[in-house]
């Protein structure tokens, strides 16, 4: 009998966003996450003639963050109410880590939700903020 189970995923390798102003977004992700930019650009596969990407690496997790410039970008802010991405959620180890993030974002003058808690579907705490293109980024800690 054939195994109809889905193959395993080992983790998230990278996330990629199309941005309005690639230089401003590079600066923001470097500042907020201390992400380190690789010193080259990459073709936007399948759209090589209309765009390119830069890649930044968040040094502690190794997460790669791709920022894409595309000539078809009309300059609109991101809107999670449209089809596509709603938000990205990053895991952190504890509520204390969320408090440290809130202090860090305050020091950078980046507006955020403050740490919020909930019990459904499991006990958790979150902190929400947005990048320069209005993409919602969420930090999430499961309750101990």
What does this structure look like?
The chain is of the alpha/beta class and 144 residues long. The chain has 2 domains: 13-71, Roll (2,3-Dihydroxybiphenyl 1,2-Dioxygenase, domain 1), CATH 3.10.180.10; 87-144, 2,3-Dihydroxybiphenyl 1,2-Dioxygenase, domain 1. Helices cover 17% and strands 33% of the residues. It has 2 helices and 8 strands, in the order E-H-E-E-E-E-H-E-E-E. The strands form 2 sheets. The protein has a 4-stranded mixed beta sheet, with helices on one face. A 4-stranded mixed beta sheet has the order 5-8-7-6, covered by helices on one side. Strand 7 and strand 8 (136-142) form a beta hairpin. It is globular.
Helix content: 10-25%
List the total number of helices.
2
What is the H level of CATH, i.e. the homologous superfamily of the largest domain?
A: 2,3-Dihydroxybiphenyl 1,2-Dioxygenase, domain 1
E-strand count:
8
Q: What proportion strand?
A: 25-35%
Characterize the largest beta sheet: strand count, sense, and whether it forms a barrel. 4 strands, mixed
CATH architecture of the largest domain: Roll
Order of helices and strands: EHEEEEHEEE
Summed over residues and divided by their number, the pLDDT gives a mean of 91
Distance between the termini: 41 Å
CATH overall fold name of the largest domain? 2,3-Dihydroxybiphenyl 1,2-Dioxygenase, domain 1
As residue ranges, the low-confidence spans are none
Number of domains: 2
**Largest beta sheet: strand ordering:** 1-4-3-2
Estimated structural class? alpha/beta
CATH class of the largest domain: Alpha Beta
